[in-house]
Design goal:
Shape: globular
Structural class: alpha/beta
Order of helices and strands: EHHEHHEEEHEEEHEEEHEEEHHEHEE
Number of helices: 10
Number of strands: 17
Largest sheet: 10 strands, mixed
Distance between the termini: 40 Å
Helix content: 25-40%
Length: 321
């Protein structure tokens, strides 16, 4: 593998790795990871790739499993984040190695530094776990003290999602990428840690947004492109209405002005805009099945400093929210 090849970070969304409404079973997760690996493999030629991934459905399931065990205190979210990062990292690493012959893959359980005083700890917004009807969600909120918010036409639990400040294992990731390895890292946004005041770190109760961590990683790696792969093919205006239309190309300021929700497309928009503004590179938001096209610039919502204020397509077939 050529060390002069461009570097791209590909962020696989949690819903891209497990379709909405699909049961979280080992078989379903393996099939989803295999499909994701095939899409990433198609984009690997001529590029050095770093792959990140979501963990919202998986960490939510682990929370439910640990709460059903009554013999001790519940496991903290940072430990559950690490468990899902290891679980999904292994599956994605396995399938990438099966799909790509010209390089090896290494998965890293990645710690990411956050600020203990981040206001996000007082305003939970990050969706985790399964979806519920409104009545069940309200009952869970009362019984377990969870924060619940609407997610489309259903409800999900939300937890704190502080801003990522630094990828602790960045030097190791750089060395692996420089040696020609494909790296899977910062899964679920990474394991959230704070400074402990004595030169070390300790974990905290949170789930970092995977897209913002992916942006931070891409900036620090001096990547040429950032692809945010999800379960829709682009950012849309008038989403969920008969007039919904895809945004094909856009400048960061115009994309931010859409004011998309913080619990869903909002972080992807912010991550794409930050990367473009801080590096001058190109970011793309679109379908997991089109990772190669997202990186080539021929699909999804392409975000560029020199992009048009907003290039909008015509109304497309209905896409479930």
């Amino acid at each position: 593998m050529n060390g002069d090849q461009p570097v791209a970070v590909v962020a696989l969304g949690g819903n891209a790795l497990l379709r909405r409404g699909e049961p979280l079973t080992p078989g379903a997760q393996l099939r989803a990871a295999r499909a994701a690996a095939g899409s990433v493999a198609a984009a690997a030629a001529g590029r050095r790739l770093v792959v990140t991934h979501g963990n919202g459905p998986q960490v939510g399931l682990l929370v439910l499993m640990t709460e059903s065990y009554q013999a001790g205190e519940p496991w903290p979210l940072d430990v559950l984040d690490a468990e899902t990062e290891g679980q999904l990292g292994y599956i994605i690493e396995l399938e990438l190695d099966n799909a790509i012959d010209d390089r090896d893959t290494a998965a890293i359980v990645t710690r990411v530094l956050v600020d203990e005083r981040d206001p996000a700890f007082g305003n939970p917004t990050k969706f985790i776990g399964p979806v519920y009807g409104e009545d069940e969600a309200r009952a869970l909120a009362e019984r377990r003290g969870w924060h619940m918010r609407p997610d489309g036409d259903r409800w999900r639990r939300v937890v704190a999602s502080p801003e990522p400040k630094r990828v602790i294992q960045l030097p190791a990731i750089r060395q692996l990428v420089g040696a020609g390895m494909m790296v899977v890292c910062a899964g679920g946004g990474g394991v959230p840690v704070v400074d402990d005041g004595d030169g070390g770190h300790r974990g905290v109760e949170a789930v970092i947004d995977k897209d913002l961590s992916s942006c931070l990683l891409a900036v620090e790696l001096e990547a040429d492109a950032l692809a945010l792969a999800t379960d829709v093919d682009a950012v849309y205006v008038d989403w969920g209405t008969p007039n919904q239309r895809p945004v094909h190309a856009v400048a960061p300021d115009a994309l931010r002005a859409l004011g998309l929700p913080p619990g869903s497309m909002g972080p992807k928009v912010e991550a794409a805009c930050r990367f473009v503004e801080q590096t001058g590179g190109r970011a793309a938001i679109g379908a997991l099945e089109q990772v190669r096209e997202l990186l080539d610039g021929s699909a999804g919502t392409q975000v560029r400093l020199d992009g048009p204020e907003m290039a909008i397509g015509t109304t497309t077939k209905e896409v479930a929210p």
